[in-house]
Amino acid sequence: MSTTLTLLAKHRILTRPHSLLAHRLCPATSSATLHQPVRNNHAAGGQNFRPERTEYANLVSKSLLPGEREQFWMSIANREITWTTPPSTALSISPSGTHNWFPSGTLNMSQNCLDRHLPSRSSQVAIAYHSSVGGNSRSITYEELLNDVSKFAGGLRSLGVEKGDRVLLYMPMVPEAAVAMLACARIGAVHSVVFGGFAAKELAVRITDASPKVIVTADCGLERARCIPYMPAINEAIDLADSPEPSVVVLRRPEGKALGVSYEMKERDRCFYETIKNGEVTAPVPLSANDPLYTIYTSGTTGDPKGVLRDNAHAVHLKYSMSSYYSLEEGETFFAASDIGWVVGHSYIVYAPLLHGCTSVLFEGKPVGTPDAAEYWRIIERYKVNAMFTAPTALRAIRRDDPESDHTKDHDISSLRACFVAGERADPDTIRHFEEKLGPSIPVVDHWWQTESGSPMCGVQFSDVGTVGGSCGLPLPGFDIQILNPETKERITAPGVLGSIAIKLPLPPGFMTTLYNNNERYKKSYLETFPGYYDAGDAGMLDENGYIHIMERTDDAINVAGHRISTGLLEETVLRHPNIPECAVIGVNDSLKGVVPVALFVVSGNCKSTSIADDVINLVREHVGPVASMKTAIEVHALPKTRSGKILRQVIRKIANGEEYKLPGTIEDASVVDGIIEAFGK
Ligand code: COA
Ligand code: AMP
């Protein structure tokens, strides 16, 4: 890995002070008041992600120092969460470094999200469902949500689901998805939500791994003007999967009916609302803080997805993050423009806003084209959104369609106090553009997190520094993030020197605890590279403020429109083609999606077909799904390799992106590189 000070300049890292803004991560420095929920002064901003330096240093050391960190999280746990049995111990650490927070505590996530708010919030909107594609928006109060959740939980029980059983969700962005998640949490079933953009074969891999008793799905999803029938994918995936046949609960959407989606129910199928209607009202089950809440699959180096497992202790960190970081008061409105199929959707569309008694906007649509680039601003005006989350890709799309942000002037977005971005590296130009257009009262805050973390890890800014373009700021309390030299394993403290991002153990509550059914892979993938640390799989560096810059993945994953996709999986898929003996899939920079995958492939000697590139694209669409956004496949005569046969993917990637590259001395045939240069027209 190269070590260079010029990277800061290369990535156009710019500093913009925000001295006008008064900001506190916590309202006071005495330990007695440190964790009080923040009372935001709206006019002043209430920007807890921008503390003063001493305040930040105090808070971080309390959250990390052995002895103090236990007290830190214990006091948050006791204050923020309703426990059936309050925990007596904060943390237990196994010899291998894995952690269990609040091991003796019992609680229920759905009770904390719903039941406990009823006395004060029964008629407050819990979920504001806004569909820009179906036109079927509706608001669901806390009372209504609790009714549906407790009856759906009873419905799941009647289908044989008990504590510890898995329930897989393959759902569009509809409130019923949140109902199903919360119902699982209520009875201790482990939900596993699979993003709707994955094709049947990838869905089958996840069904095989999770072995669900029940699958909850819908008859269709809506993608812009297109209606995507889900049931063919569900039925194919169940046939392909190597697991006992599950029951299937199907939501029949009015849009599906209107758009002519017909589906004949099978014997194993149940109707979603019949399940609710016939379900017994079910009370929340007390669960251990270390019982699993859910698994969510994410991509790594190989084609096998990793089932990240999270436990109920997650509730503590999520609730804390709402006030201490996102700066929301209980009862305010949060809009996470993501999908429940991704971790952001789990944490900040469903669980965290409800834990905090907020209204969560559940949005079905795209940032542009449904109907236009004004949709986010329209939503903010309509629901009086106080803070929002989106991906840089979405902001780039909005800017492309509305270069001067004229649409922001047509809508009253004065309720908004901050726009948080994550999911991929945020290019400084996009951040700067929106900071300018939205004005100083709505900072655009880049924060870094992963499926594994479940909540942001980095994203604090010093009050006297503010935004630094290209950086996601300073670590949040609970995260001892360090840059390590991948060869020597030593800590790098000098600015501008690239290294691996690692987090010193133990990890805070809410972080993944293991991989579902595969603790060995968990240890190997995350804990072995840097003993005593969690290896984040990202490379990055510090700047002179101590801010962290996340630059790229160190594994074979790429972030496409904020979605983590494994190039290993894409290569395995391309190699399914009978006439392709070799291929390389690399991430090529894209002005909209950040990075898109491109496949280079070699065709076997006797094949004369002219349509192989199209076949490759269709294969990926059919096996992985459209979400991979693979639109380019190029035939080459050979791939550059080392003498030991390793494909030089980094060289190919640099050529494709017009970056400088160096050929290793071990290259087998340097002339092959000419063919790659030609393929990319460089
Ligand atoms: N079900 C079925 N298909 C889906 C899907 C779903 N849930 N989600 C996406 N797809 C399909 C899309 O229809 C598209 O298919 P196509 O190739 O036939 O057009 C493909 O997957 C890629 O989708 P997407 O990445 O959404 O591209 P797009 O061109 O439709 O939209 C953007 C471009 C920029 C508007 C979109 O990528 C976007 O909103 N990005 C931000 C995503 C985000 O929030 N990420 C952060 C998650 S935490
Ligand atoms: P996922 O688990 O799909 O959310 O993807 C997580 C990965 O996305 C991280 O490991 C990073 O590679 C990338 N990522 C997320 N947020 C940021 C950010 N703010 N800046 C740079 N990269 C990010």
TrEMBL record:
Instruction: Tell me which residues make up the Acetyl-coenzyme A synthetase N-terminal domain.
Output: 68-113
Database matches in InterPro entries: ACAS_N, AMP-bd_C, AMP-bd_C_sf, AMP-dep_synth/lig_dom, ANL_N_sf
The leader peptide range reads none
SUPFAM superfamilies assigned to the protein according to its UniProt record, in alphabetical order: Acetyl-CoA synthetase-like
> Per the database record, which ranges form the AMP-dependent synthetase/ligase domain?
126-505
The organism's place on the tree of life at top rank: Eukaryota
Report domain AMP-binding enzyme C-terminal positions: 570-646
Cite a single GO MF annotation: propionate-CoA ligase activity
Per its UniProt record, what Gene3D superfamilies does this chain match?
Answer: 3.30.300.30, N-terminal domain of ligase-like
The entry assigns this protein to a family as follows:
Belongs to the ATP-dependent AMP-binding enzyme family.
The entry's protein name is Acetate--CoA ligase
